[in-house]
Each structure stands twice: as C-alpha cells, then as structure tokens.
C-alpha cells in the first residue's frame, strides 16, 4: 500500500491506552466520577480546540504561544489544543450567566495538551479532573472543595499518612507581608515576588533582594517564622485581615468535621501571584519518592470577567492529572487486582457442531447479564484455552459433538480448575 | 483584566456540554459501554494528536491535508488532530502484534475532529464509538460485529421498525459485476467506479458511462435487477464467488439467531472503493426525516500492513457518532427522563444554626450513599427552594434553630410535596 512503513510509536509525550491501561483509567476515573456525583457535582465538557486568545488573555501572549499547540484555521482563526480547562469553564459560565443555577458545583475530566519537555508525571498530554464551585465567595465553598479533594483520595482508601492538604490564603499572605514589611501596595507586591521565588534561588540572593526592598534582618526573620507556624499563631499576626479570618473559619470547620488530620497550614503555598485571590491549597504526597503537589487549587475571582462586563462570579476549585494520581496509587499500593475480577465466560467451539449453536449459548449468557464471548478464531481447542487464560476469562463453556448430542455442556472454572457437566438448558443457572 | 471581552461561543462546528448535555451523553455512552463489555469487547484509546502521515498513507495527501486540522510542531513533525480512529487502532495493533491475544475484540469512544462545513448530524467534532475485531477473516467475525450493532440499538429499546442493517459484500460485488460485464480486472474496476457514483449523477450519465465501458442495455438491466434482489437470488448469480458464500453464511446465521428481521441484503451499499474488502454494511434509520446511515462498517484487510511488513491482520468493524445516535434516539422517542430520576437531597441552611451542623448532615447522607449537597450560597430560604427545584433535587432537608434544638429535621419531598419530621439521628433511615 505504501513503500515505507509508518512508525508504530505515538507522538512524543503522548500515550496509547491498551485495554489493560484503559481499564485502570476507567476504574479510577469511575471512582472519582461516582464520588463527585454523590456530592452533587455535575459533569460538563467543552471542545478540544478553543480560541487561542482565551489563553493569551489569561496567561499572556508568550506563555500561550510557547506552551500550547496552536495554529490557524483556513479563515485565519487562531486555535489552541486546550492546555487547561479553566478558560473553557469560565466561558461556559459566562455564556449562560443569567440562566445557570448558582452556586454551581461542576466537574470535568478533559484531555489536555501542553507543549513542554516530557518528564515524570508531566507528559505533553494528560487527563485532568477539574472540580469547581462558582458563585459562592465565602469559606463554605473552600471547605466543600477541600473536603471533596480529601473524599476523592479516601475513595481509594488513602489515609492521612499518605497525603496532606497544605493550605494558605492569598489575602492573608498579602496582608501579613504588608504588615511585616511596612510597605505600600506596590512595595508589598515586590516583596511577594521575591518570596514567591524563595525556593528557586540561593538563600543569599533571597535575603539580598529583600534587603534591597527595605527589609531588615528582623523583618526577614519574622517572615521566616511564618513557615513554622500553625494557623492560629499565624492568623494572630494580622487579626484584622479577612484572609486570616477565612483561614480560622476554614480550619475550625475542618476540625469539626474531623478532617483536620488531613490538613496543615503552610505559608509556603502561593501558587502563582496573578491568579489566585483567597484560599490556596496543594495536596502533597507524603511518600518521599513522590514528594510533589498532586492536586492544586484555590479561589480565583476574575475569570468570568474576561467574557462578561460588570460581573464577578467567584470561583474556587482544584485540578489533578491522571498520571499524578496513578503514581500516588501505585506508590501507596492502592490499586486492587482489577483485571481478574468477576465472571467472564469464553464459549469454545468445535468444527463438528454448528456454529450458531455456540452463538445461541453466548446470546443466553449475555441475556442473563453474564460477560461472555464466543471464540471466533480458527485455532484448535488447546489454543482456545490459551486464549481464555490470556484474556482473563474466568470460565470456559465446552460443548463438543458428544455433549451437544446429549444436550449437555462442560463448564470449566479457570481459577479453581474445576470442571462441571450441566444440562445445556441450565447453563445460566450455574452462574446465578 | 483586558479591555476587549472574549467571545463566549465555542469554536465553529464544536460544542459545549453543559451538565444536562453531558448527562445525556454519559447516559447513552454508558449504555453502549455496558453492552460492549457484556459482549467482552475491551476498551482502548490513543492520543488526540497523531502523525499526519498516517492519514496521508490511508486517504491520500489531499484528503488528509484538506479535511484534518493539521500543523507542524517546533521540531517540524507534521501532526493532525485525529479525524478518525482506524489508523490509531491499526498502529496500536501493529506495535504489539506479537504480544496481543488474537482475535481482538476492541472498542473505543474517541473525540474526533474533521475540517469540514458544519451541517446537521455532521459537525467539525464528534464522539465516535468504534467497534472492531482483529485477527479473524471468516464470516463469524462479521456476524459478531453486525449482531453487536443490533444489540447496541436494542439496548435503547429500538426495534426493527426503527432501523435496518443493510448488508453487502465487496468480494461478491466485484465478482458479480465482472461476471455480468464480462470485463477483465481493470475493466471491472472502471465499471465499479461508475456504479459507486450511481446516485450522484443523472440516470442518463450513469448509462452513458456504462455503455462507454462496453455494457449494453441487457447488462445494465441485469445490474439494475440486483438492487431488488434478496440475498439468495443475488448469490445465485455468482455461486462460485467467496463473497456470495460469505453472504449466504452470514444471512443464514442471522436467521438462526432471529436477527434477520433487522437485516436486509442491499446491493447499493459499497462504502468507498479502496478500503473495504469483504462484508460491508450500514445501519439506516427507518424514519423518513432522518433517513441516513447511522452506523457504517465492514471488513478491511490491509491497515496493519501500513506499519508492519509481511503481515495481514484482517479487521472488521463499524463506527457511529454521538450526534447521529442522539438524532435517532430523539426521533424515535427513546430517551427517558434521565434528569429527575433517583434521590438527590439538598440540605438547606439557616444563619442561626452552626454551619458545620449542616455539613455533618451531608457527610452522613453521603456515607449512606445518598446523592446530596449542602446549600452553600448566601440566599434566604425561599431562594434555596428555587435552587433545589431548578437543580432537580428530589428532597430538601430543613433544620432551623427550633428543629436543631429539639434534635429534629424536616424532610420535604419535592416531587410529592409531602413534608415529614424525623429525628435528626434517623435522617438516613428515611431514604433507606
């Protein structure tokens, strides 16, 4: 058909999902979907191709251009393969802002593409669970979102030794920094930028940058101290801050609901300076070999405003990817044997029995809601056994011409290796 | 944040899925996934971005370039947003050809993009169910695939008055045309091309083209007659054809399995000349207003050969899109009221009861596997009722300060309008 053979590799940084991979993904997303629906979150989705300008408006021309797959269509529209779901969900909310039933509790499990160097836990594409609440700007929504994050991990039997939710508040962060530094708004913004880069530069550079902004050693020490504090001690530094009060309310509610064992106040959580406006949090894997943020989220207030004038629909939410989740589940041994569960029956065949006699058996099994297949290949019986074993079938139904003439069947349990002869009429009773 | 507001419209020819839309899609794909798994089909998936050369190898440079969204990455790799799943699945099969457990019964529900003018039932993107069997080149696989197509529609309670499977065989088509026309292989190919265009040109043009290829009026009449024939009559015209025998075997098995009421032999089904090699079929909606092919499929033999030398893994399968399926279900009134099924509880709130008392109730409900939410907005009770009704909640749990002090709750059934007072401790018993 063509002289040169095509490559069988998927495009760099993307993945193929063979049935075993897909079964795993369906299993964990199925659990997540069920847990979210139980909590009355509703699923939405949007197109893979979106207008590039949405990502430019949110993240700037350079990031949008460099980190997305983007191109122009024949009419010159600039499109991106969506790199994240937040602009899409903001667009959906904006488009029906006068019809929707606020507060919204929404989730989505989109496939996302980012143009970046592939690395562990961060391919060029992944599937990402996005959970958001729109239209509630008080701590109750933050609580619901954080408790949902905990619920999702508990659905896999993860416990508080395996993960922790690290929580901060951007309003509190701004207020306490301004109060310690004694700077005006612009000065505080500059100090915040230095603090945001704290872990990315040597300690001397960090201190030098703060000194340049007018902070002395005492002030720097005060900021250092915040990283060691519990939530009450930190909040007490700036009691008039709305962010401090939000933190106190949130942590008190978490205690009331016995969720405090999963949560810690962490002044180090900032999550980018320009986007989040209130509560921010990350779920960290406690395993040292996997020690990174699995879930990240928080409150953002301005996204819907990109689409609709004079509106401010507050949002709070989080996201996490399939790769990160799978790493966590594997590390903590939380994936059961999903491949050899339940009944799955292979009806084997012989050439001296009419083929439709076998298809009738399969039809009966399926009508009784028993997962089953006829062997449709052309190999001999021995190979049909191999096929059944390799295909994780639990049972084989065997009907040679002598059984067929007597109206009988053999059923072989491939796990226990027991073989039973039954009346053909009673095939489905065996599995009842 | 930016001076000019962004558009809230999705990109032309693509769709947003709000929760009601998504619920419908999840409902029908859920039924399809369950029916396919019951029949031991296994789900796979692959990346949205694939090498453009796969589509060029299958469909030619022009179609691949014109009808896909394609672009180059920074390393100059030519990529396409996948327009169909078949090259991907052929690639997956080829990559593990020595490990896989043939015959494979595989399915996928990918999102696909085609660059074409949007029209009813054919947007620029859709979700497509793909069902394939690889590694069985006899009619048994054709039978399994066709009976699966019927099973999927029957899962929605569709009956044989609503759809029919129109079946032909490309081997039979080639053989019977050659036999009537008396032409050699090349001549028959030319005749086939004319017949393939039969419904797209005026009758005079069709006849003139056949006459130019040496067919007289008698031969043309013989070809016309084929369109009216049943399968036995047609097969008898060319009894030595392997395709004729495959048709007879297939239809006999369909009769044996009582599936013949869903199936008709239709000489008009060709489905493109270069791709299919044996059985071809289309499922047609019987409703006159929707009268088009819903499912299309058949046997193709050469795809895996694009990736691996000296191999011939025969495939047979079909595909259908979500838009087409939804049109069918709507037309035949096959969608039940999926929006107001089951129990869904809203816990309302009052300011004079501690908030965490409500969150504790919701936690209890969810632990008892009852879909529920707390009202997290800031509106008064009357608006909370509106929220519950608009959100399709079946029940409201009401606990004002007087009920709270007495350890009681009111439960309001929003469908029957009945209100019941229960002990707070017995909340979940009410729903048991």
Task: Report on this structure.
The structure is a homodimer of 432-residue chains. The longest helix of chain A is centred in the first third of the chain and has 20 residues, at 19-38. In chain A, strands 1, 5, 6, 7, 8, 9, 10, 11 and 12 form a 9-stranded mixed sheet that branches. In chain A, strands 14-13-15-16-17 form a 5-stranded mixed sheet. In chain A, strands 2-4-3 form a 3-stranded antiparallel sheet. Chain A has 16 helices and 17 strands. The first copy, chain A, is α+β, with helices and mostly antiparallel strands and 432 residues long. Chain A has helices at residues 19-38, 52-59, 61-67, 86-95, 139-154, 170-181, 185-196, 203-212, 217-226, 231-236, 242-256, 322-331, 355-367, 381-390, 401-406, 427-430; strands spanning 42-43, 49-51, 69-72, 78-81, 104-108, 111-113, 125-134, 163-169, 263-265, 279-285, 293-300, 315-321, 345-347, 372-374, 395-398, 408-413, 419-423. In chain A, helix 5 (139-154) crosses helix 11 (242-256) and helix 6 (170-181) crosses helix 11 (242-256). The interface between A and B is large, with 98 and 99 residues.
Write the layout of secondary structure elements.
The structure is a homodimer of 432-residue chains.
Chain A (H helix, E strand, L loop, with lengths): L18 H20 L3 E2 L5 E3 H8 L1 H7 L1 E4 L5 E4 L4 H10 L8 E5 L2 E3 L11 E10 L4 H16 L8 E7 H12 L3 H12 L6 H10 L4 H10 L4 H6 L5 H15 L6 E3 L13 E7 L7 E8 L14 E7 H10 L13 E3 L7 H13 L4 E3 L6 H10 L4 E4 L2 H6 L1 E6 L5 E5 L3 H4 L2
Parallel strand pairs in A: 1-5, 8-9, 13-14, 13-15
Antiparallel strand pairs in A: 2-4, 3-4, 5-7, 6-7, 7-12, 8-10, 10-11, 11-12, 15-16, 16-17
Helix pairs in contact in A: 2-3, 5-11, 6-7, 6-11
């Amino acid at each position: 058909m063509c002289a040169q053979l095509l490559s069988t590799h998927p495009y760099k940084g993307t993945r193929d999902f063979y049935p075993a991979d897909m079964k795993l993904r369906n299993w964990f997303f199925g659990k997540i979907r069920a847990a979210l629906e139980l909590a009355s979150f509703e699923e939405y989705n949007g197109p893979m191709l979106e207008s590039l300008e949405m990502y430019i408006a949110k993240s700037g021309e350079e990031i949008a251009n460099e980190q997305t797959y983007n191109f122009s269509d024949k009419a010159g529209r600039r499109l991106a393969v969506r790199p994240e779901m937040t602009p899409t969900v903001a667009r959906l909310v904006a488009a029906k802002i006068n019809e929707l039933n606020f507060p919204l509790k929404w989730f989505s499990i989109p496939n996302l593409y980012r143009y970046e160097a592939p690395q562990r836990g961060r391919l060029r594409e992944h599937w990402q669970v996005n959970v958001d609440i729109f239209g509630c700007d008080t701590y109750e929504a933050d609580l619901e979102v954080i408790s949902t994050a905990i619920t999702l991990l508990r659905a896999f039997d993860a416990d508080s030794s395996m993960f922790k939710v690290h929580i901060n508040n951007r309003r509190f962060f701004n207020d306490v920094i301004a109060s310690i530094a004694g700077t005006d708004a612009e000065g505080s913004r500059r100090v915040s930028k230095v603090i945001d880069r704290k872990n990315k530069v040597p300690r001397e550079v960090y201190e030098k940058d703060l000194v340049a902004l007018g902070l002395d050693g005492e002030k720097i020490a005060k900021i250092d101290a915040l990283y060691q504090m519990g939530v009450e001690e930190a909040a007490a530094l700036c009691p008039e801050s709305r962010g401090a009060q939000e933190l106190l309310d949130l942590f008190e509610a978490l205690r009331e609901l016995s969720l405090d064992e999963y949560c810690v106040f962490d002044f180090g959580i900032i999550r980018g300076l320009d986007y989040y406006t209130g509560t921010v949090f990350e779920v960290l894997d406690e395993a040292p070999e996997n020690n990174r943020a699995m879930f990240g989220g928080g409150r953002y207030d301005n996204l819907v405003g990109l689409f609709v004038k004079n509106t401010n629909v507050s949002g709070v939410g989080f996201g996490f990817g399939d790769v990160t989740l799978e790493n966590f589940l594997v590390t903590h041994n939380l994936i059961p044997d999903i491949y050899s569960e339940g009944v799955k029956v292979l009806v084997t065949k012989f050439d001296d029995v009419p083929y439709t006699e076998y298809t009738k058996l399969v039809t009966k099994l399926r009508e009784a809601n028993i997962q089953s297949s006829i062997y449709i290949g052309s190999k001999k019986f021995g190979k049909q056994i191999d096929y059944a074993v390799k295909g994780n079938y639990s049972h084989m139904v065997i009907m040679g011409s002598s059984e067929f003439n007597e109206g009988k069947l053999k059923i072989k349990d491939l796990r226990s290796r027991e073989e039973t002869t039954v009346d053909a009429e009673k095939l489905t009773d065996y599995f009842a």
